[in-house]
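Hey,
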Amino acid sequence: MKWATGRLYKNRKLFLIIAGLIVPLLLFALQLDQKTFVARPLQEVFYTPFWSISNKLTALVNVYNNSMALKSENVRLKFERMTFEQNRLEDQRFREMLRLLPRPDYKLISADVIAHDQGRRWSSAIIRAGEYIDQFLPVVDEKGLVGKIAGSTGTVATVSLLIGPNCRVAARDNRTRTLGIIKWNTGRGLLLDGVAVENDVFPGDTIISSGMGGVFPEGLAVGVVAKVDTIPTEVFKQVVVQPFVDFGSLDNVMVMKPLSGSFGN
Protein backbone atom coordinates (compact mmCIF):
# COMPACT_ATOMS: atom_id res chain seq x y z
CA MET A 1 0.00 0.00 0.00
CA LYS A 2 2.82 2.36 0.91
CA TRP A 3 4.57 1.44 -2.30
CA ALA A 4 1.48 2.26 -4.36
CA THR A 5 0.92 5.53 -2.49
CA GLY A 6 4.54 6.52 -3.03
CA ARG A 7 4.37 5.73 -6.71
CA LEU A 8 1.12 7.66 -7.02
CA TYR A 9 2.63 10.70 -5.28
CA LYS A 10 5.74 10.67 -7.46
CA ASN A 11 3.65 10.46 -10.62
CA ARG A 12 0.84 12.74 -9.45
CA LYS A 13 1.13 15.08 -12.45
CA LEU A 14 0.79 12.18 -14.88
CA PHE A 15 -2.12 10.82 -12.88
CA LEU A 16 -3.93 14.15 -13.00
CA ILE A 17 -3.41 14.39 -16.76
CA ILE A 18 -4.74 10.88 -17.30
CA ALA A 19 -7.68 11.56 -14.98
CA GLY A 20 -8.39 14.77 -16.82
CA LEU A 21 -8.57 12.81 -20.09
CA ILE A 22 -10.46 9.78 -18.87
CA VAL A 23 -13.17 11.52 -16.85
CA PRO A 24 -14.50 13.57 -19.82
CA LEU A 25 -14.45 10.44 -22.03
CA LEU A 26 -16.41 8.46 -19.44
CA LEU A 27 -18.93 11.27 -19.06
CA PHE A 28 -19.28 11.43 -22.81
CA ALA A 29 -20.04 7.70 -22.99
CA LEU A 30 -22.70 7.73 -20.28
CA GLN A 31 -26.42 8.23 -20.77
CA LEU A 32 -27.96 11.64 -20.02
CA ASP A 33 -29.39 10.65 -16.65
CA GLN A 34 -26.13 8.93 -15.76
CA LYS A 35 -24.18 12.04 -16.76
CA THR A 36 -26.37 14.12 -14.47
CA PHE A 37 -25.91 11.66 -11.63
CA VAL A 38 -22.10 11.63 -12.00
CA ALA A 39 -21.66 15.31 -12.80
CA ARG A 40 -23.49 16.51 -9.69
CA PRO A 41 -20.99 15.10 -7.11
CA LEU A 42 -18.09 16.10 -9.37
CA GLN A 43 -19.49 19.61 -9.44
CA GLU A 44 -19.87 19.62 -5.65
CA VAL A 45 -16.33 18.33 -5.15
CA PHE A 46 -14.33 20.13 -7.84
CA TYR A 47 -16.29 23.08 -9.17
CA THR A 48 -18.39 24.56 -6.35
CA PRO A 49 -15.52 25.21 -3.87
CA PHE A 50 -13.41 26.90 -6.52
CA TRP A 51 -16.40 28.88 -7.78
CA SER A 52 -17.14 30.07 -4.22
CA ILE A 53 -13.50 31.01 -3.62
CA SER A 54 -13.38 32.79 -6.99
CA ASN A 55 -16.49 34.81 -6.12
CA LYS A 56 -15.07 35.76 -2.74
CA LEU A 57 -11.77 36.81 -4.29
CA THR A 58 -13.60 38.81 -6.95
CA ALA A 59 -15.66 40.52 -4.23
CA LEU A 60 -12.51 41.31 -2.24
CA VAL A 61 -10.82 42.74 -5.32
CA ASN A 62 -13.91 44.87 -6.04
CA VAL A 63 -13.97 46.11 -2.44
CA TYR A 64 -10.26 46.95 -2.64
CA ASN A 65 -10.67 48.77 -5.97
CA ASN A 66 -13.67 50.70 -4.66
CA SER A 67 -11.74 51.61 -1.51
CA MET A 68 -8.77 52.88 -3.54
CA ALA A 69 -11.11 54.83 -5.83
CA LEU A 70 -12.79 56.45 -2.80
CA LYS A 71 -9.40 57.34 -1.31
CA SER A 72 -8.27 58.88 -4.60
CA GLU A 73 -11.51 60.84 -4.85
CA ASN A 74 -11.11 61.99 -1.26
CA VAL A 75 -7.57 63.24 -1.94
CA ARG A 76 -8.75 64.99 -5.12
CA LEU A 77 -11.58 66.72 -3.26
CA LYS A 78 -9.19 67.81 -0.49
CA PHE A 79 -6.85 69.37 -3.06
CA GLU A 80 -9.79 71.06 -4.78
CA ARG A 81 -10.98 72.45 -1.46
CA MET A 82 -7.47 73.68 -0.61
CA THR A 83 -7.20 75.33 -4.03
CA PHE A 84 -10.64 76.90 -3.62
CA GLU A 85 -9.73 78.19 -0.16
CA GLN A 86 -6.42 79.63 -1.40
CA ASN A 87 -8.21 81.35 -4.29
CA ARG A 88 -10.86 82.68 -1.89
CA LEU A 89 -8.24 84.10 0.47
CA GLU A 90 -6.32 85.61 -2.43
CA ASP A 91 -9.47 87.26 -3.79
CA GLN A 92 -10.27 88.53 -0.29
CA ARG A 93 -6.78 90.07 0.03
CA PHE A 94 -7.12 91.75 -3.36
CA ARG A 95 -10.52 93.17 -2.39
CA GLU A 96 -9.03 94.50 0.84
CA MET A 97 -6.17 96.08 -1.11
CA LEU A 98 -8.60 97.74 -3.49
CA ARG A 99 -10.74 98.91 -0.58
CA LEU A 100 -7.75 100.35 1.31
CA LEU A 101 -6.27 101.99 -1.78
CA PRO A 102 -9.08 103.86 -3.58
CA ARG A 103 -6.68 105.90 -5.71
CA PRO A 104 -8.06 106.76 -9.14
CA ASP A 105 -4.69 108.17 -10.20
CA TYR A 106 -2.96 104.78 -9.76
CA LYS A 107 -3.31 101.42 -11.45
CA LEU A 108 -2.84 98.41 -9.17
CA ILE A 109 -0.87 95.54 -10.74
CA SER A 110 -1.27 92.20 -8.99
CA ALA A 111 1.95 90.23 -8.43
CA ASP A 112 3.05 87.03 -6.68
CA VAL A 113 6.06 86.85 -4.37
CA ILE A 114 8.21 84.05 -5.81
CA ALA A 115 11.42 84.35 -3.75
CA HIS A 116 13.17 86.14 -0.90
CA ASP A 117 16.82 87.01 -0.59
CA GLN A 118 18.91 84.41 1.20
CA GLY A 119 20.58 86.72 3.70
CA ARG A 120 20.17 86.65 7.49
CA ARG A 121 17.64 89.46 7.21
CA TRP A 122 15.09 89.82 4.47
CA SER A 123 15.86 93.05 2.65
CA SER A 124 14.45 92.20 -0.78
CA ALA A 125 11.99 89.93 -2.55
CA ILE A 126 11.34 88.79 -6.11
CA ILE A 127 7.85 89.26 -7.55
CA ARG A 128 6.21 88.25 -10.82
CA ALA A 129 3.25 90.02 -12.41
CA GLY A 130 1.10 89.52 -15.48
CA GLU A 131 2.35 92.70 -17.15
CA TYR A 132 5.40 94.92 -17.38
CA ILE A 133 6.64 96.46 -14.10
CA ASP A 134 8.51 99.77 -14.08
CA GLN A 135 11.33 100.60 -11.68
CA PHE A 136 10.84 102.74 -8.53
CA LEU A 137 7.12 101.94 -8.13
CA PRO A 138 5.56 101.50 -4.66
CA VAL A 139 4.58 97.98 -3.60
CA VAL A 140 1.78 97.34 -1.09
CA ASP A 141 -0.40 94.58 0.29
CA GLU A 142 -3.73 94.70 2.13
CA LYS A 143 -1.99 95.75 5.39
CA GLY A 144 0.18 98.55 4.12
CA LEU A 145 3.45 99.54 2.50
CA VAL A 146 5.80 96.70 1.48
CA GLY A 147 8.59 98.54 -0.35
CA LYS A 148 9.53 99.76 -3.79
CA ILE A 149 10.67 98.23 -7.09
CA ALA A 150 14.48 98.30 -7.14
CA GLY A 151 14.99 96.57 -10.48
CA SER A 152 12.87 95.08 -13.24
CA THR A 153 13.36 92.71 -16.15
CA GLY A 154 9.84 93.01 -17.49
CA THR A 155 7.23 91.03 -15.59
CA VAL A 156 9.75 89.93 -12.91
CA ALA A 157 11.10 92.53 -10.50
CA THR A 158 13.12 92.94 -7.31
CA VAL A 159 11.47 94.72 -4.40
CA SER A 160 13.50 96.61 -1.80
CA LEU A 161 11.56 95.82 1.34
CA LEU A 162 10.67 98.42 3.94
CA ILE A 163 12.65 96.40 6.52
CA GLY A 164 15.84 96.61 4.47
CA PRO A 165 18.55 99.30 4.35
CA ASN A 166 17.74 100.33 0.76
CA CYS A 167 14.21 101.61 1.29
CA ARG A 168 13.45 104.91 3.05
CA VAL A 169 10.06 106.57 3.16
CA ALA A 170 9.07 110.15 3.89
CA ALA A 171 6.41 109.70 6.57
CA ARG A 172 4.31 111.50 9.16
CA ASP A 173 2.43 110.80 12.37
CA ASN A 174 -1.20 110.49 11.31
CA ARG A 175 -2.43 112.06 14.57
CA THR A 176 -0.05 114.98 15.06
CA ARG A 177 1.20 115.35 11.44
CA THR A 178 4.79 115.26 12.70
CA LEU A 179 7.19 114.55 9.81
CA GLY A 180 10.09 112.13 9.71
CA ILE A 181 11.88 109.52 7.61
CA ILE A 182 11.10 105.83 8.00
CA LYS A 183 14.26 103.75 7.79
CA TRP A 184 15.41 100.28 8.74
CA ASN A 185 16.55 99.85 12.33
CA THR A 186 17.53 96.28 13.26
CA GLY A 187 15.93 92.95 12.40
CA ARG A 188 12.45 93.74 11.16
CA GLY A 189 12.13 96.98 13.11
CA LEU A 190 11.84 100.52 11.79
CA LEU A 191 12.72 104.00 13.01
CA LEU A 192 10.93 107.26 12.36
CA ASP A 193 14.07 109.36 12.05
CA GLY A 194 14.36 113.16 12.31
CA VAL A 195 11.63 113.72 14.93
CA ALA A 196 12.63 116.67 17.12
CA VAL A 197 12.29 116.30 20.90
CA GLU A 198 9.63 119.01 21.02
CA ASN A 199 7.38 117.23 18.50
CA ASP A 200 4.53 115.04 19.79
CA VAL A 201 4.84 111.37 18.83
CA PHE A 202 3.53 108.73 21.23
CA PRO A 203 3.30 104.93 21.33
CA GLY A 204 0.20 103.74 19.51
CA ASP A 205 0.28 106.50 16.90
CA THR A 206 -0.14 105.39 13.28
CA ILE A 207 2.61 106.30 10.83
CA ILE A 208 1.71 106.88 7.17
CA SER A 209 3.62 107.99 4.10
CA SER A 210 3.69 111.77 3.67
CA GLY A 211 3.83 111.85 -0.14
CA MET A 212 7.10 113.80 -0.15
CA GLY A 213 10.03 112.54 -2.20
CA GLY A 214 8.09 111.55 -5.31
CA VAL A 215 8.09 107.74 -4.91
CA PHE A 216 5.37 106.92 -2.38
CA PRO A 217 1.97 108.62 -2.53
CA GLU A 218 0.53 110.12 0.61
CA GLY A 219 -1.48 108.06 3.06
CA LEU A 220 0.02 104.57 2.71
CA ALA A 221 -0.07 102.75 6.06
CA VAL A 222 3.46 102.12 7.34
CA GLY A 223 3.20 100.98 10.96
CA VAL A 224 2.44 101.86 14.54
CA VAL A 225 4.74 103.59 17.04
CA ALA A 226 5.97 100.92 19.45
CA LYS A 227 8.33 102.99 21.63
CA VAL A 228 9.58 106.58 22.00
CA ASP A 229 12.87 107.35 23.74
CA THR A 230 14.04 110.87 24.53
CA ILE A 231 17.74 111.34 25.38
CA PRO A 232 18.50 114.67 27.14
CA THR A 233 21.68 115.25 25.13
CA GLU A 234 20.04 114.53 21.76
CA VAL A 235 17.93 116.89 19.66
CA PHE A 236 15.91 114.06 18.06
CA LYS A 237 13.71 111.41 19.60
CA GLN A 238 14.23 107.74 18.90
CA VAL A 239 10.87 106.58 17.58
CA VAL A 240 10.60 102.81 17.07
CA VAL A 241 7.90 101.75 14.60
CA GLN A 242 6.38 98.29 14.20
CA PRO A 243 5.42 97.76 10.52
CA PHE A 244 1.88 96.71 9.68
CA VAL A 245 3.02 94.27 6.99
CA ASP A 246 4.00 90.76 8.05
CA PHE A 247 7.12 90.38 5.90
CA GLY A 248 7.54 86.75 6.94
CA SER A 249 4.33 85.71 5.18
CA LEU A 250 4.33 87.83 2.02
CA ASP A 251 2.45 86.02 -0.72
CA ASN A 252 0.56 88.40 -3.02
CA VAL A 253 1.28 92.10 -3.42
CA MET A 254 0.23 94.97 -5.66
CA VAL A 255 2.43 97.37 -7.56
CA MET A 256 1.11 100.94 -7.72
CA LYS A 257 1.60 102.40 -11.19
CA PRO A 258 0.68 106.07 -11.76
CA LEU A 259 -1.70 106.53 -14.65
CA SER A 260 -0.10 109.84 -15.68
CA GLY A 261 2.82 112.06 -14.76
CA SER A 262 6.23 111.02 -13.53
CA PHE A 263 7.49 109.49 -10.35
CA GLY A 264 10.76 109.81 -8.52
CA ASN A 265 13.46 107.37 -7.53
